Amino acid sequence: MTQAQLAQGNAPLLAVRDVSVVFGGIVALNGVSFDMHKGAILGLIGPNGAGKTTLFNCLSRLYQPSSGDILMEGASILTRPPHRIAEIGIGRTFQNVALFPNLSVLDNVRVGCHARSSSDIISDSIRLAWVRRGEAEINKKVHEILAYLDLEDVAHTVVSGLPFGTQKRVELARALAADPKILLLDEPAGGLNHEEVYVLGDLIKRIRDQRHMTVLLVEHHMGLVMSIADHVVALNFGRKLAEGTPAQVQADPDVIKAYLGSKDQ
Amino acid sequence: MSAATEDAVTEAPAVEAVPKRAMTLGLGTSLAVLAALVIAPLFVKNFIIFQMTMLLIYALAVLALNILTGGSGQFSLGQSAFYAVGAYTSAILMEHVGMNYALTLPIAGIICFAFGFVFGQPALRLSGVYLALATFALAVAMPQLLKLGFFEHWTGGVQGLVVTKPDAPFGLKMSQDMWLYYFTLAISIGIYVASVNLLRSRSGRAFMAIRDNEIAASAMGVNVALYKTLAFGVSAGITGIAGGLGAIAVQFVAPDGYTITLAISLFLGMVVGGVGWLPGSIVGSAFIIFVPNIAESISKGLSGAVFGVLLFIVIFLVPHGARQVAIVAQQLIGKLRKG
Q1: What is the pTM of this model?
Q2: What is the mean pLDDT of residues A146-157?
Q3: pLDDT tens digits for A218-229?
Q4: Which residue of A has its CA nearest to B211?
Q5: Which residue, B338, B25, B4, is CA-closest to B196?
Q6: Residues A104, A105, A106, A112: is their CA dihedral positive or negative?
Q7: Could you say which residues from 7 to 46 on chain A have a Cβ atom under 8 Å away from some Cβ of chain B?
């Protein structure tokens, strides 16, 4: 058991229970189960095609599992449509950055506040007092997050013109704007150089500690996962191969076989 | 100025990037345009005033399409159908019910909003060119629906309806055309301001988020289906008000006034004005009203061909429409000030 689990008792924040996903005849996920505990950084690893992104997309409700259940604080998320996932505290970033390219950094992050605010088109059109107050609150929060992630200099820049590394930070800012309890990061280190990966690792830890979030990290970059994760789940061919501390998973013979192949093959 | 320091930081991408408040004009420019619109009719003949009224009315219809396409990224070649419903709603309420012309407009807007919202439901399954085709079908069907014998008592069938032009109220000494112009101007300003507010608000950001990336918008909690249909509703509602005003200004509604040609003209106006740039709507409207006349004055027999050539030139020179011209002008003025 990890320290985070011991500290928080045993009720998981998010529980993946025996989830299977079948596309036509292909079993993309086969009975995967694991728990995420509050305040932990969970690393999800596996070779290409292991089912990491499939699982990720189940969590953000883009895919419907064929069987099994996903519980957030004890309640199933599978009855919720995709746009009602943010409001229960699940935020995400995308593998290849899915920002709103024609909007400024500010507006991208403001959209992140959508799930935590309300309005209607009539009140918005005539800018009623409560709408103005809401916008002021959104702006305050957005500027706080931009300062936190050191993005203030580019606040008014349209995101499509920004370097890839900066776009990734904008995406993180947008996810933070919804005050998620769980942050799902899909290959955040992809496309970053060696130095940037270390900065990112520190940033993820800092976000977990300072903003009290739980992080699910899907990552190819072993160095990053092993250095910051409290707990690691390894997938291969849609099945859970191993689970435990980074050291345990790294030493697991099945994991080594999946990554390096064995002599028998 | 803060703009100068920002320029220094982002010198290279500044050319490509859209300027900060790209959706609207600055306060000074807005007031200048407004002043021109208020003063101009005092110096021209009634026929020109009528044309200026039509300019505002089509500008509203182009603006409505701009919210739909520029804002939420959905195409429509069916705006003429919403325009027709608005026009007929106003005409029927005025002539059959005897309602005051000004009161018919909000009703036209609400009916068209509902119509657009409902039409937006099936449109949810379509995107891009397929949505354009579905709306095209709506535009083609509308004139025939209006001719149906079943509605003839209300719509006047093929003959259409004649609408009485309102007099200036409160004993104002003003021609009917002039009064209608200022009435239209007031409504246009109101709708323009509301549209700018809308696009800058949480709802507007949801529209634009959907336009740019539906999956990401949904992950941020935006109800994609709801906001897409809302965009259709808002666009149809504004188009309906424009249609109602059009019926009052022209004093006549008939099915053949609202064919697909109108829808394509509005689409053209949006492209010429700059997709997603609301002030461009009036430029686009001017293009679709005046350029055909110019083409006709150049060659009566080949006016269509001349119009085509003029359109081609505009699209070739300024593919982003009036917005591009505005950006270039802004940069020139900026340089002159610095120099």
Answers
A1: 0.87
A2: 92
A3: 988 888 888 999
A4: A100
A5: B25
A6: positive
A7: none
- Look up tokens 């336009």; give the residue: B211
Question: Which residue do the tokens 């609150």 mark?
Answer: A137
- For residue B197, list chain A residues with Cβ-Cβ distance below 8 A: 124-127
Q: Report the DSSP beta bridge partners of residue A36.
A: A14
Encode pLDDT of B138-192 as tens digits: 999 988 888 887 777 777 777 778 888 887 788 777 788 888 999 999 999 999 9
The phi, psi pair for A81, rounded to 5°, reads: -70, 160
Q: What is the 3-state secondary structure (H, E, C) of A18-52?
A: EEEEEECCEEEEEEEEEEECCCCEEEEECCCCCCH
Contact between A42 and A185 (Cβ < 8 Å): no
What SS3 class is residue A72?
strand
B-proximal residues of A, 52-91, CB under 8 Å: 60, 62, 81-87, 91
Q: A241 vs A21, A187, A224, A254, B254, CA distance in Å?
A: 17, 20, 20, 7, 72
Per the CB < 8 A criterion, the answer to whether B270 and B70 are in contact is yes
* Strand order through the sheet with A26-36: A26-36, A14-23, A67-72, A75-76
What crossing angle do the helices spanning B46-66 and B260-273 adopt, rounded to 10°?
Answer: 80
Is the CB of A104 less than 8 angstroms away from the CB of B217?
A: no
Are A83 and B222 inside 8 Å of each other by CB? yes
Task: Give residue A120's identity as a one-letter amino acid code.
Answer: D
Name the phi and psi angles at A126, rounded to 5: -100, 10
Q: Given this model, what pLDDT does residue B8 score?
A: 36
The continuous run of DSSP H or E covering A218 comes out as: strand A214-218
Question: What share of residues in chain B are helix, strand, coil (percent, to 5)?
Answer: 80, 0, 20
What are the pLDDT digits (tens) for B313-336? 888 888 888 888 888 888 888 888
Q: pLDDT tens, A183-203? A: 999 988 888 888 888 888 999
Amino acid at site B291 = V
Task: Please determine, for the modelled complex, whether the ipTM score is greater than 0.90.
Answer: no
d(Cα A185, Cα A91) in Å, to the nearest integer? 9
* Nearest Cβ partner for A103 among B194, B208, B223: B208
Q: Which of B138, B149, B127, B140 is nearest to B214 (CA)?
A: B127
Closest chain B CA to residue A105:
B20
